[in-house]
Design a protein that fits this description.
five-stranded mixed β-sheet, TIM Barrel, four-stranded mixed β-sheet, alpha/beta, 426 residues
């Protein structure tokens, strides 16, 4: 796409004073093996200065842009959010080619998410860049249809072809001064988090239609495709009991976020100051997890989900499963949020000793019914009297003597859910 943009600018008679390239990065090599042109090689062949290993927000790039007297910055497939200093560094501003039909699917992986959400179309949009996430005024866009058999790979090809048309058309509009940017309709906006949808994993309890959408959304040869969850891979029909008592060495930290109120549910992912405050609030951790005290479901807390994942959290527990809900036929099990963060729901919090045996028996029956292992999470909080915690620990010790009950740690659960990809790209 970047090469199409370069072609469009030069064919219009404009001068490209420099390109900022990621072609040297290891993750870009796979695109070249797929036959994609290299922006760095194309620019070099045309004697255009190439800059790399430079942040878009650095003083170095600001100096380059200023000295080049550039009128316009065009961006696609860049990994940084542009700050005000670079956004305002040129006469006409900075614009981005985003592979979505904005305002739907701002943020990460817009093509896979369009398939997952069951959209009948997606597209590519050229928009003015603002400090937010893909929320600037729309210059122009092209719509692309999605069929029930499309994959991320096939939609990407269609979107790239549409992007070529968009590049030539929009460069002509810049050149002739006929641009008429329009504000995005915020009520129609959706946003997706960084990372592979659901960590690239198919939830064992999804309906077949939902699983099919995610499979197609993650099929993009030669990249690795979707993978199965542990329940789908294992032949065991047992209970994996996760028990956290007062003496557990791997206790999850308890973190409360309710005082942030509704602001952390912002649809656009939250502003930069909010994300910074969230990062400062999170206890430092690497690969561990936390029990989150929240008054709402974590699923829509986009800024918090992003902050947790970027802060090194591999798993969290924020979802309580009331015993009354067990009769619905599907007991909530560990699952991945949209950005891949693993949730380990709590089934029993500070239970009575008599409740533990009943829960284990119920879960064993459930495992046999679904022909897969199930997870039972029992949490004993710090305010629990030590004597009660001791009784519960003794009860748990008895339960793990029962055939089919296995005691596991949070790290064990994470390891099970971090299985290798099942590559179906071929």
């Amino acid at each position: 796409m970047s090469c199409h943009i370069l072609d469009a600018v030069e064919s219009n008679g404009q001068t490209v004073v420099g390109v900022l390239s990621r072609d040297h990065e290891p993750g870009m090599r796979i695109w070249h093996t797929m036959g994609h042109r290299s922006l760095e090689a194309l620019a070099t062949s045309r004697n255009i200065p190439v800059h790399k290993d430079i942040s878009v927000n650095s003083e170095t790039l600001l100096k380059i842009v200023s000295e080049s007297e550039a009128d316009l910055i065009l961006s696609c497939f860049w990994s940084e959010l542009f700050r005000d200093s670079i956004l305002n560094a040129t006469r006409l501003g900075a614009y981005n080619f985003h592979t979505a039909y904005l305002p739907r699917h701002r943020g990460s992986r817009p093509i896979p998410w369009a398939i997952i959400k069951g959209d009948s179309y997606c597209g590519i949009t050229l928009h003015r860049m603002r400090p937010g996430v893909d929320d600037g005024e729309i210059v122009d866009q092209v719509k692309v249809n999605i069929t029930p058999k499309d994959t991320a790979g096939s939609v990407y090809d269609k979107v790239t072809e549409a992007g070529k048309e968009l590049a030539y058309r929009s460069i002509e509009a810049f050149s002739s001064g006929t641009l008429k940017p329009i504000a995005q309709e915020e009520s129609l906006a959706t946003y997706q988090l960084r990372g592979e949808p659901y960590g690239g994993q198919i939830n064992y309890f999804w309906a077949s239609e939902q699983a099919d959408k995610v499979k197609r959304a993650l099929t993009f040869p030669p990249f690795k495709a979707w993978r199965k969850s542990p329940q789908a891979i294992s032949s065991k029909q047992n209970v994996r009991l996760i028990f956290q008592d007062l003496s557990s060495e791997n206790r999850m930290k308890t973190v409360s976020f309710d005082d942030f109120g509704p602001e952390i549910q912002a649809i656009n992912g939250g502003d930069s100051s909010l994300r910074k405050r969230l990062r400062e609030r999170l206890p430092k951790i690497s690969g561990g997890g936390a029990h989150l005290k929240l008054s709402h479901n974590l699923n829509r807390y986009y800024p918090l989900l992003e902050s947790l994942r970027q802060g090194g959290y591999a798993y969290v527990s924020s979802l309580d499963v009331p015993t009354s809900d067990w009769s619905n036929g599907v007991i909530s099990q560990p699952f991945r949020y949209e950005n891949g963060l693993l949730e380990i729901p709590v089934h029993l919090r500070n239970p009575k000793v008599s409740d533990v045996g009943n829960a284990v028996e119920y879960m064993l029956r459930f495992a046999r019914e679904i022909k897969a292992p199930v997870y039972l999470h029992i949490l004993v909080e710090e305010e629990t009297p030590a004597e009660t915690a001791k009784e519960l620990t003794a009860c748990i010790s008895e339960q793990i003597q029962i055939e089919g009950v296995q005691l596991v740690t949070y790290e064990d659960v994470c390891k099970e859910f971090d299985t290798d990809y099942e590559n179906i790209s071929a």
